[in-house]
Every structure is written in structure tokens, then in C-alpha cells.
């Protein structure tokens, strides 16, 4: 059935979709290959027994905000929580942009940035990397001067390329403009450092993080933003009421309270990533350096088909580029064996 009631300006939009696959090696959605630490799961299960299912969640997420604030050594008023960081990004776009406003973002990057921009009538202008898909801060600053955007989006480490942008370069962008800078830091726990608190040093920065990646809780759909109080108040003013479930708040609090228990998992994923990167390079594949939990690889479709035929599922993009989420060591072994045979 045609989308009969969709307005014309949205008519070319397609749903964001990732197929549910329950059999084989599923490494197409940047999920953790590991369950949360046992202590985290035990806390979640115990606290879940206390849920009053006939009551709404705490709309202000007070306990979770306080736990996130404690983790970073900041104030609870400098934090807000949403249904994944996606909800908070969407809210930010609706809060800030008027029809006709311009947004800049590196490309390729998270596809929803352009969707969120277009939903409010804005214009999204991609800032492309060089021939090796490496983003240039100088180029971004030049484009900011040229287009004078209302907002600038920076995902670091970038999805899907894995490039990490150093804090000094982030500061250069921030200090080059009065535009709102949105730092999507969904994968930064896999990088060399986390500079989410940089948002508290400037009026024009919001950092976004998630419990879906390093903390292995995508099923609860919970993310958060860190910024100065005025920007947090702005997001809270537009965010849907009761959007974050009681269960999600319990699970997220258990995770952030026990973040130290994740460090071994994170290191294992990083080590597995580096082994896979080196192996793919040695096999002759064009694979991009990554400080995230995935690799961006240029290869012939026959290799993708071979992986799929062996029930190994990676993310396919246009123009022969693929993203491989980091799995276990045995996942690595299976991937490499299939690619060698192909």
C-alpha cells in the first residue's frame, strides 16, 4: 500500500531498518558480542521485582540522572535521558531548527542526521572526507564559514568509518562558530579517551551517549545527553513525557553504577578489532583504521555473498563498502576462513 497520507516532502524517505536475524553470526548492528557482566544482570533482575507495573515511570529519571552525574563528576541538572540517544538527537533538532536552517555534518555518517534535519524542514549539507574517507577539521571549519549553519553534527568515533577525532580538533570546531555543536559519542568508550564533559565548558555543545554499545544494553533503548543546564532544560521541554520506562531506568543505572566491570569486555573488543584489522590488511582488503567496535571495509560483493551464504551477517552499504561489527575471537576466525576460501 502506498504511503497515502505522507506529505510530499517526505515521500522519498525509507524506514531505517535492520533485519532481525536469530541464526548464525550476527555482526551487522554494532552490538556487543557479550552479555552485560553478571553482577549488572543480577542487580537488574532483583530491582525489576520491585516495579509497580500500574504506575508511570519517574518522568524526571532522578535516580538515573544522579547515577550518570556521579559517574562523570557533574551535576544531575547537566544530564537528561531518552529512548536511546536517537530520541534526544531528534528532540534537539526540533528544539533548535526552523524551516530553511542549515545543518553541517561529516559524510558518510549516521544516516538519521539527514532525516532529523529534513523532518523539521532544514537543509543538511554533507562535508565529505578525502579519497581515503578521512575527515578534515580544516575543511569543516571552512564549510562552517561558508554556510553559517545553525547546527554542526560530529560523530566520533564516526559511524560507519570508525574515525576518531581528537579533542583538540573538536575544540577547534567548537570555537570557530556560534552554531550548536552536537557530539554523538555513542562509540567513544572504545576510543582512547572520553571527552563527553567538554560540553560543560561551552554554551554551544551537547554530548550524546548511549547504553547500547559498550554497556551492551541495546534492548532497553536508553541514552543520555550531557550539557549546560540551559541546553538540558531545552531538551526536557520538548521530550515526550514518560518516554524512558522504569525497567530501562533500572537497567541503565545498574550498568553505569558498575561501569568498571565492563572494562575487560571493552578491552577484549578493542583487541579483537585490532586483530581483525591486521588480518584483513594482510589479506589485501582496503580496511579503514577504527577506534570503535566495528571496521569499515571496501571489498567485492562476492565476499559479502560468501559470508552471507555461511550465515555471517555484516552491514552492506552502497559502492562496495561494508561494516563489520566486532564479535568474538571465534567470530573473527569464521570470518577470515570464509574470506580466504572466497
Record the SSE blueprint.
Blueprint: E1 25-26, H1 38-48, H2 62-72, E2 79-82, H3 84-96, E3 102-107, H4 112-119, E4 123-128, H5 137-147, E5 151-155, H6 167-174, E6 180-184, E7 205-210, E8 223-226, H7 229-238, H8 246-257, H9 263-282, E9 286-287, E10 294-298, H10 301-309, E11 312-313, E12 315-316, E13 321-325, H11 329-341
Parallel strand pairs: 1-11, 3-4, 3-5, 5-6, 6-7
Antiparallel strand pairs: 2-8, 7-8, 9-10, 10-13, 12-13
Helix pairs in contact: 1-8, 2-8, 3-4
Commentary on this structure:
The structure is a single chain. The chain has 342 residues and is α/β, with parallel strands linked by helices. It folds into two domains: 100 residues, Aspartate Aminotransferase, domain 1 (Alpha-Beta Complex), CATH 3.90.1150; 220 residues, 3-Layer(aba) Sandwich (Aspartate Aminotransferase, domain 2), CATH 3.40.640.10. It is 37% helix and 16% strand. It contains eleven helices and 13 strands. The strands form three sheets. The chain has a seven-stranded mixed β-sheet, sandwiched between helices. Strands 9-10-13-12 form a four-stranded antiparallel β-sheet, covered by helices on one side. The two termini are 40 Å apart.
Amino acid at each position: 500500500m502506498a504511503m497515502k497520507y505522507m506529505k510530499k516532502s517526505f515521500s522519498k524517505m525509507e524506514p531505517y531498518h535492520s533485519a532481525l536475524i536469530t541464526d548464525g553470526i550476527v555482526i551487522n548492528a554494532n552490538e556487543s558480542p557479550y552479555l552485560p557482566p553478571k553482577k549488572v544482570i543480577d542487580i537488574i533482575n532483583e530491582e525489576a521485582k520491585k516495579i509497580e507495573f500500574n504506575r508511570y515511570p519517574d518522568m524526571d529519571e532522578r535516580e538515573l540522572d544522579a547515577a550518570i552525574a556521579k559517574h562523570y563528576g557533574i551535576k544531575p541538572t547537566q544530564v537528561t535521558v531518552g529512548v536511546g540517544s536517537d530520541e534526544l538527537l531528534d528532540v534537539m533538532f526540533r528544539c533548535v531548527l526552523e524551516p530553511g536552517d542549515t545543518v553541517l555534518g561529516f559524510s558518510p555518517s549516521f544516516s538519521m542526521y539527514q532525516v532529523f534535519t529534513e523532518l523539521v524542514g532544514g537543509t543538511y549539507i554533507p562535508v565529505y572526507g578525502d579519497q581515503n574517507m578521512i575527515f578534515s577539521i580544516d575543511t569543516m571549519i571552512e564549510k562552517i564559514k561558508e554556510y553559517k549553519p545553525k547546527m554542526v553534527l560530529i560523530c566520533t568515533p564516526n559511524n560507519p568509518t570508525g574515525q576518531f577525532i581528537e579533542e583538540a580538533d573538536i575544540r577547534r570546531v567548537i570555537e570557530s562558530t556560534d552554531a550548536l555543536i552536537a557530539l554523538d559519542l555513542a562509540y567513544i568508550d572504545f576510543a582512547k579517551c572520553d571527552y563527553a564533559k567538554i560540553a560543560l565548558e561551552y554554551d554551544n555543545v551537547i554530548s550524546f551517549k548511549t547504553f547500547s554499545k559498550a554497556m551492551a544494553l541495546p534492548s532497553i533503548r536508553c541514552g543520555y545527553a550531557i550539557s549546560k543546564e540551559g541546553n538540558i532544560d531545552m531538551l526536557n521541554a520538548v521530550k515526550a513525557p514518560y518516554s524512558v520506562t522504569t525497567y530501562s531506568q533500572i537497567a541503565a543505572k545498574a550498568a553505569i553504577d558498575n561501569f568498571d566491570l565492563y572494562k575487560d569486555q571493552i578491552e577484549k573488543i578493542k583487541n579483537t578489532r585490532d586483530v581483525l584489522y591486521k588480518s584483513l590488511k594482510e589479506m589485501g582488503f582496503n580496511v579503514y583504521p577504527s577506534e570503535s567496535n566495528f571496521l569499515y571495509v571496501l571489498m567485492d560483493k562476492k565476499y559479502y555473498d560468501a559470508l552471507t551464504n555461511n550465515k555471517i551477517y555484516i552491514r552492506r552499504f552502497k559502492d562496495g563498502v561494508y561494516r563489520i561489527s566486532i564479535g568474538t575471537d571465534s567470530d573473527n576466525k569464521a570470518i577470515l576462513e570464509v574470506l580466504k576460501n572466497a
